[in-house]
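Honest question from a wet-lab person: if I give you the sequences of every part of a complex, can you actually get the arrangement of the whole thing, not just the pieces? Trying it with mine:
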Amino acid sequence: MSRPRRHFLKLSATTLGGLLIYTLDRKPTRIQAQTGSIKVPLRFFTEDEALTIAAAAARIFPADESSPGANEAGVVIYIDRQLASAYGRDHYRYTQPPFAPGVPELGYQGKDTPREIYRAGLKLLGAFRLLPPADQDARLKQIENTVFFSLLRTHTIEGMFSDPMHGGNAGMIGWQMIGFPGPRMSYFDDVDRHYGTAFRQKPASLAQLLGRPVTPGEDTET
Amino acid sequence: VKTLAPVDVAIVGGGWTGLTMAKELATRTSLKILVLERGGPHKTRDYLDNMDELDYAVRLRTMQPIRDETVTLRHTLRDRALPIRQYGSFLPGTGVGGSGEHWSGISYRYYPHDFRRLSHIVEKYGRARLPEDCAVRDWPVTYDDLEPDYERAERLMGISGKAGNLRGKAIEGGNIFEGPRQSDYPTPPMKMPYLAALFRDASRSLGYHPFPLPAATTSVPYTNPDGVSRGGCSYCGYCERFGCMIGAKAQPSNTLMPVLARRNNFEMRTGAWVRRLVAEGSRVRGVRYNDANGDEVFQPADLVFLASWTLNNTRLLLLSKIGEPYDSETGRGLVGSHLTHQVTVPAATLFFETPLNAFMGAGSAGIAIGDFDALDHRDLDFVSGGALYTVCYGTRPIANFGVVPPSVKARWGAEWKKAALHNYDRTGLVRFYGEHLSYRGNYMDLDPVYKDRFGDPLLRLTLDWRDTERNLVRFVTSRAVKVAQAMGATETLPFQGLQRYQATRYQGTHLQGGTIIGANETRSVVNMYLQHWLAPNLFVLGASAFPQNPSSNPTLTAVALTYRAADAVIQRYLKHPGALA
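Yes, you can. This is the full assembly:
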C-alpha cells in the first residue's frame, strides 16, 4: 500500500545548515557548503512532506549556540523509516474493533495508525516550512494537544537518542549531548566510583560494540 | 483436531513457575514431561543483539504480541470496558522464560504478617479498620511453612543481599523487619551506584533502616545446587525489558533450561498457544492448542500444570469452564476474584547539581527501607504498607530524556531542550512500591465484546484504586520529599497522587489473584499445594494464587510455592493420585 519509492530528500548546506546525516548505508555524511547536496532515498514521505516534518521536529528540538538539534541528527530520516515499517501500520497495537472513546487512563483508543496520524498532521501543518520560526512555534502551539503533535514529539526524542542504526542520532550526536555512551558490556570497575563527578566515554553504537552489523527492527517485516 | 500421543505431565507456560516444576519433576521422577510455550526459544547469546532501547524497551519486541491478544479494562462495573491497545502498566513477556527473562530481578520474601494479613489487621486495629469492600484473606500457609522453600528459591537463583534477621537475631545493614531466615543470602549484596548510596546515607541519617535490594542480578560468579554456573553482574544497565547478555541475571533460560535440556524425559514445545484445558467431570484429560502452523492439536496428559501467568491462568480456567466464574454483584463464584496489582509510584523526582552517571547499574542494584512495611497505623488513614527505594537500573535516553524541574514549564522548544539536556544525568527517583489490598469490586471475567486472534474472548479487568491506596501514597510521598532533601536535591517534584488506575503508566508486571489459594474449597480455587479443588490432576502455579498483593514483588514467593507444590506432588500425589488437602 506504500507509495512507489521514488522520493528523495535532497539536502544541502544552504537549505538546512551544516547537516550531519545518515544515508542508507549508515555512513554519516556531513554536508558543508562545498558538498553541494545529497539525496537520501525516502521510504514513506514525499520530499515535501519530509521537509515539513523536519522543520517541525527542528522547532521541538532546535539547534542552538551550544548544541545541534533534530535536523543535524537526521530525525526525519528516523521517522520516515519507522512509518514505512510495520510499526507505521500499527503492528505494535491491538487494533480490533469496535473503536470507542475512553477515559485518558485507558490510553490511545483511536483507529488511526501512525501513518494516518502523520498524514492528518501534515494537513494541519500546511505550508509550515515556509513560515518564519516564530510563526512556526505559534503554529505548533495551536496543535500542541493533538495526537499528532504528541507522536511527533515522542518520535523526535526517539530519533535524537536511538541507536544510529535506526536512521537518527547521526554520528551519535544525541548521545554525546547527554553523556550516554551507548550499550557497553561492563561497568563493573566504574559503577561504584566517580561519585558526584561526570564519568564520560566516547559513545559507541551497538554495531560498533559487537563488531558486526545488527538489523534494526524496522528492516524486519514480522 | 489432531490428537497426539499422551504424556504424563503437560505444563502450560515456560516461565519461572512452569519450568521450576518441570525441573523438579524431570530430575526427581521418570515421568515424561512436556512444556507448551506460546512464544519462541531464548538463548543468552541472542540477547547481545537486543541491547537496543528502541526495539526492545520502546517497541517491546520480547513481550507478548499485543496485536494478538490484550485485556480490556474498566474502573467500575458501570463503565464500558475498552481494550488496552498498547502496553503500559504491565509488560507480559513471551517465549521460553516468559516475563522471567526481562524482569529486574528484585527478589523479596514476604513478611510473616503478609501470610495472615486479615488476622493481622483485625488483631492490631479491629475489624472496623478494614476498608469498605475489602476482600483481604489469610493464606493457608505461614511464613515458617514456606521458609525452607524461600531458601531453595534464593539458592536456585543465587540471590544477592544481606540478611536482616538470622534465626531471630537482628542484623544491622539488612532488612531488620524481615522474618527470621535460617541462612544468609547465597551471594553478597550488589555494588552501589551513586544515587543508591545517596539514598542509603540520607535515609539512615533520618533514622530509617536501609538495606540492599535482594537481587537476582547476581553480584559474583555463582554455582547453584543444580550445578548451573552463572557469571557476576557487569552493571551494563540492560536488565528490565531485556534478557541478560552475559547470563548474570537469573532467568529461566539460563538457570532452569540448562538442567532440563540434559533430561531425556523433558520436551519443550514452542509456538504452542494453549486455548483450552479439556475437562471431563473432576478430571482434566489434556490441553487443546494451536501449534506454530496454526493447526489445532489435542495433547492428552495425566497431570496438568497451568503456569501461564496471573491473567492467562485465570482466562484459561474461564474459557475452559473449570470452576464457577466470580460474580462481584452476588459474590458467587471464585474464578477471577481478588485481582490486585501493586501500588508503584515515583514518589519523588529529584534534581541534583552534580551528575549521577546513571547509565551504569542493574535492574536490582539499589537500596530500600522497610520501615513503612512496619508502620503503626493507629493514627493513619490506611492500614497498608510498602517500601521507599532507589534502584539504579541504568537509565536509557529515550525513556528518560525530557524531564525538567518544576520551575521549567516548557515541554518542547529551546528552553525545554536546554533544561532537559542539563538535567538529563542530574535527575533521580525515590520510588515506592506498596501493598494493594484486594476488594470485592476488583476482579476478572471474560469480555463480552473483544476477542483475541483466534476469536476467543479477551479477559476483562475491573480494577481501580481505593482511598486506602491513595492515602498510603500521600503519606509516603511526604516522607520521600524529606528523604530527597536529605539527599541534597536542589529541586524535588513530588508524585501528584493516585487518582484512577492508569493503564498507561508502567507499574510493574506484578498482578495477582484470579485463582486464589485457601484452606476451604468453598472459598478458594486451589488448596495450599496449588491443586485445583475441583480437579485433583490440575495444579495452578504462580501469583494468580495470591489473595492480595503484599507490597513487594511476587516472583520469589511464586517460585517458593512451586517448590512446595512439587514436593507434595512427588512425595504424595504420584503415590496416591487424588486430593492432597
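Two things worth pointing out. Chain A has a mean pLDDT of 90. The first helix of chain A runs from residue 13 to 16.
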